[in-house]
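Input/output pair, single chain:
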Amino acid sequence: EMRDTEAAVNLFYTQTEKSKDQYLGFDKYAEELQAHPEYFTAAEKVLDTLQEHQGLIKESLTPVWDKDKEEKGNFFVDADITFTQTLLTVMGAIEEFILTFETFDKELYKKWMRVVWNIVENTDIDNLERVATTLRSFGRMIRHIAAELGVESKFGAERGHASKITNTDSFYQAMANCADMPSTDDDNRWARPFKEEMEKAKRISENGEWLEQFLKMERHPYFKGTTNFYYTEGMTLDSFKHRCEFVAEMFDAKGITKQYRKRHVLLRAIMSKMSMWKDIERQYLTENNETHKYLKLLLISDQRIHDMLADILDNSHDEKEIIRALEGETKSLIPYDDKIGSELQTAIACNALRWDVKLYDWITEQPSPVYVHWKNGHIAVAIPGKWFDRYFIDSERDKMAQRFIEKYGMEYYADEEVHTSPDDYTTYGRYKGEDAIFYFNYDENDDYSFNINFSNNHRFRIFVELPKKTRAKKFHEIAKAGHIYKDDPYCVYFDCNNDGNPLFRYYLDCEFDELDAYVEKAMKTTHDTLVKMGIISA
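Output:
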């Protein structure tokens, strides 16, 4: 029970790992072993089996998709390795097998380790609780299999298994039958990777030819054991082979293949299934096969993506047809009618993640995955840990900004300190960062400027910047309009309507005319006032 800090694991695992170079004495170990003599018996059987069958077990510590790579994390090769949570889980599954069976059957062991690696590779094991949960499921599964095969050890039987047992001589049939085990709480519910292996076992027990096709795809350097996102329960073997032929060309060891990265068509099609904030919140975007497996976990966990790919693959005869169908998915946009506030923001953001190829150019150029998050009242795509490296995607402010630039000859306020540049829009079609400020200078020294600001929380602001506080006060007196805020005494703001309320929030390009009416009026007032101040000529 790894979630209990007082349990044996705290001594045998946590404390031991923390104090490798210290001798802690044997008293506490003795207390545990005296209280639980079965620990000693179990350890003895495990160690004897590791010694007797070390060649096979050593080999099994490397999954089939890594056989050609340098051995890593293998304690038979390197006694000084640190047990990662993945290796700890695999080792735990090996021990469950050893302890559950009366004798060590090499062929059964090979079949078991294929299943173990498929499950571990496609489970997000990032903490000890995940290790514990996964190991409990492995224990339930292997004890049920051993009981159905009639070869369960006394030690395994004492640890308990499901009461409903169907005698069989087929490992795969026994595994498939695990799906019928009763579920009483969260720990007894099978996680998705376990269900996937049970379904595969069911098909293999029906027709042995399924095994060859599963093995072929499991060795693929990207799939690494999973068939979840391109297999549908009950489908025929021929249909599965058809899907496999094409899906194997969509991915390679690096992630999405070159042909499906063109215009980022596959990733955009995948994101076209996202339509709500809960779908995109903290969603990592990448075309690569990276450590955290963000793309792969999304593919195998979202039924909407599965259904889309299944339909496209089933109805396509070549790569061109697949790409055309994927592009078609990206053109299915969410309508904005009747949407306001956060609902409208989400719709705009989800649509951007479907159609905006230039945005994906930036996303995929980054050295690590970019993620979607909430910042200052906006939905943004950002590089984790770099506060200035983000694009807001929940409005059409950049379209509106370009119209202001074209109409009034404005310029973009670029700031090297926060890494904003006009090149952002030229290259990626968007302005980076938070406040997006655009200005028109009235003098050669840039002392007097008219500014519009697409500010945080979607507030549209208009202001005139002057070189001195006294000039700002004089401007305000002559103009008889605008506001000077205490925390910004060099500027006169025209960011309220006649009732004193802030100008409405900006979202869509169709709102440009209403915003422009405020801008045009404020710009005329600014021009006339600067003429009266003698700053510019009439």
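The longest strand covers residues 370-375. DSSP finds 24 helices and twelve strands in the chain.
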